[in-house]
Design goal:
By secondary structure, the chain is α/β, with parallel strands linked by helices. It has 16 helices and 13 strands. Helix 4 packs across helix 12.
Length: 430
């Protein structure tokens, strides 16, 4: 077939792929409906080229999978060397063992590891293992933890249950009705609410993101850990997004709180598919008694990429650079807000900063993306910071954003918005 551009290809894709693309976060409707270029031809550092050869500065960076930038030469070299040796055989690849040893070394509280390719399946695997260790099978959760039945079943009770954890009104079509009353959401930093939930619903597993948008208050994480010890509840920290982004390992290490299990992905593989589930041996050993397996969990590309990435994290002192870049971005956002008397709420860690407009957020976010795209910048109100989001690239981005804020402050949006509004904004309770 003849491909004109990404927009036309996406329209065609929607006729043969449900939703147009496998990854929900890459749907054009989330960014700029009918205008988003949708597909890339090549990439390097934080630049991508679309199907027509247009070069863009990427401030979103693949939903947080590439903190070392796109198409990293050192990572690619290590991967290609092993591909040339052979990727899949009847026997196992040694890199699986080497990566398990490395990640456990970063987390002294853990002693065993298992691996998957995607974060959703890693979360589902962790729930399976945790449930096999406790008589009480009900799960309390906070934050986003993938697409599997155990998670979406929370909306069977009420379509509003996941509103603040992912998106509002998510449909539970296809979820068995007997999963009703097995998974229950709780708000971040509200410890009294969690206590009531534990007592009322016989909770056996607690799964949560350590931190995303707001910091834990009043020793919140320590309190969660303590109640889990008292009630013999298995505590899982989902660090698919936060792990290996602001320090070597999980962000929970910074708060000096250890879970019973933890999950890592995204940044770990530098754009290659790999997710890790680690935990205490007495818990993880139950994975031998329940059937957990997948053919392609045994290929060596993801393991190789992760091992190479960890070396690069150390060599480049990645985490200091990312923290500095993110902090700089936040300060510039606040300066623009003050300059144009345009109220915004700045959130997130320095590694994943975001902001929300106090009024008409969806409209203003759509306009922001539209104007950025005109200037060959892929951007929304959230940035997954990489080592290549340096001062020069940030200044290019801010120069355009300054004009956006000015136009919004002068109430010009409704006259110059050339797209439908972006899809319902994604919200994360923590």
């Amino acid at each position: 077939m003849k491909i004109k551009n990404g927009i036309s290809l996406y329209k065609y894709a929607k006729t043969i792929i449900p939703g147009g693309t496998t990854l929900f976060s890459k749907r054009s409707e989330l960014h700029l409906p009918n205008k988003w270029p949708a597909y890339f031809n090549k990439s390097k550092k934080i630049n991508v080229w679309d199907l027509k050869g247009n070069k863009y500065l990427d401030m979103f960076c693949a939903v947080g999978t590439s903190i070392l930038g796109y198409n990293n030469e050192r990572i690619n070299k290590s991967v290609l060397e092993n591909i040339n040796k052979g990727n899949m055989t009847t026997l196992n690849c040694p890199e699986e063992v080497l990566l398990a040893k490395q990640i456990i070394k970063h987390h002294r509280w853990a002693s065993m590891a298992k691996f998957t390719r995607g974060g959703g399946e890693a979360n589902a695997l962790a729930i399976r293992i945790a449930r096999s260790n406790t008589k009480n099978k009900n799960v309390a959760f906070c934050g986003y933890h993938g697409w599997h039945d155990w998670y979406l079943s929370a909306n069977i009770n009420s379509k509003k249950n996941l509103d603040q954890h992912l998106m509002s009104g998510l449909n539970f079509d296809g979820i068995p009705s007997n999963l009703k009353n097995t998974s229950f959401p709780f708000p971040y930093n509200d410890f009294p609410y969690l206590l009531k939930l534990i007592k009322k619903k016989n909770i056996g597993v607690i799964k949560m993101e350590v931190m995303r948008n707001i910091k834990p208050l009043d020793n919140y994480l320590q309190k969660v850990r303590k109640i889990c010890n008292q009630k013999k509840i298995i505590l899982i920290f989902d660090e698919c997004t936060s792990g290996y982004r602001q320090n070597m390992g999980g962000i929970h290490l910074k708060f000096k709180v250890s879970p019973d299990m933890a999950i890592f992905g995204k940044a770990l593989g530098s754009g290659y598919a790999i997710n890790a589930i680690i935990g205490k041996s007495e818990i993880m050993k139950k994975a031998e008694n329940t059937f957990i397996s997948s053919s392609f969990w045994g290929e060596r590309i993801g393991y190789t990429a992760a091992l190479s990435s960890i070396k690069e994290f150390k060599r480049l002192k990645v985490f200091k650079k990312i923290d500095s870049n993110g902090k700089f971005i936040k300060s510039l956002w606040l300066n623009l807000s003050k300059k144009y008397s345009l109220p915004i709420k700045v959130m997130g860690t320095n590694a994943i900063p975001s902001f929300e407009f106090s009024n008409n957020h969806a409209q203003r976010k759509t306009y922001l993306t539209q104007e950025m795209l005109k200037n060959k910048i892929l951007a929304t109100n959230l940035i997954y910071v990489t080592i290549f989001h340096n001062r020069d690239n940030i200044k290019k981005y801010i120069k355009v954003l300054d004009k956006v804020f000015f136009n919004i402050s002068k109430k010009k949006i409704k006259y110059i918005l050339k797209s439908k509004l972006c899809f319902k904004p994604i919200k994360r309770i923590n």
